[in-house]
Amino acid sequence: MSGLLVAEDLHKSFGPTAALDGASMSVAAGEIVAIMGPSGSGKSTMLHCLAGIIRPDAGKVSYRDQELSAMSDSRRSALRRGEFGFVFQFGQLVPELTCLENVALPLRLDGVRRKDAARRAAEWLDRLEIDDVAGKRPGEVSGGQGQRVAVARALVTGARVVFADEPTGALDSLNGERVMRLFTAAARESGAAVVLVTHEARVAAYSDREIVVRDGKALDLERAR
Ligand SMILES: Nc1ncnc2c1ncn2[C@@H]1O[C@H](COP(=O)(O)OP(=O)(O)OP(=O)(O)O)[C@@H](O)[C@H]1O
């Protein structure tokens, strides 16, 4: 299998439960892939293995032909900080910081100067059509605006892959679609691949390809475009 990010024959059990049982999939550079499947089928486990958050019991995950489990912990964290971005369902923004400061945070942690980080963060807020929330704290914005702040924060560092677990799960359908439209447009513009877990067909419709996880195995459904 080839691709930017490749999972081969993954097995992962939690006690007696086999969450992944020989699952393989790959993601090409710049591609938007949706992982779908019934509740409890192993979608989040697959995402966490791909992102190097959990280590599979067997099988391997490679990023740019380098196996994640063979990397040192510091190399893996550097990869997660520098090349991967994350968008989760909720609870991901720092409540004490403004939305602009939340987006600027990964840049500040990378040593970018305050002024430059703020300027780049403001550009991303603008791209996601939420420049008006820059000075507000996460508790003062809507769920959809908060998710767009999270998308901006995931992309601001120039991430090559953004992992998103039910990014619209807490939103109504109109706001969910708006987040997906802006998220996928921003990812395409910056050339980032997106790996997205969802159980909603209309969210998956924004992807180039769907992977269905069932009984711990992954099935690749090529989307007719
Ligand atoms: N940390 C854990 N400890 C114990 N069991 C777990 C853990 N994480 C996942 N599981 C189990 O592994 C299986 C797959 O879980 P996973 O979260 O990957 O499924 P999912 O497809 O993402 O589900 P959902 O759509 O409901 O979020 C489930 O049976 C789940 O209960």
TrEMBL record:
Pfam families: ABC_tran. The keyword Lipid biosynthesis does not apply. CDD domains: ABC_MJ0796_LolCDE_FtsE. GO terms for molecular function: ATP binding. Keywords: ATP-binding, Nucleotide-binding, Transport. Residues 5-225 form the ABC transporter domain. This is ABC transporter ATP-binding protein. It comes from Dactylosporangium darangshiense. The lineage of its organism: Bacteria, Bacillati, Actinomycetota, Actinomycetes, Micromonosporales.
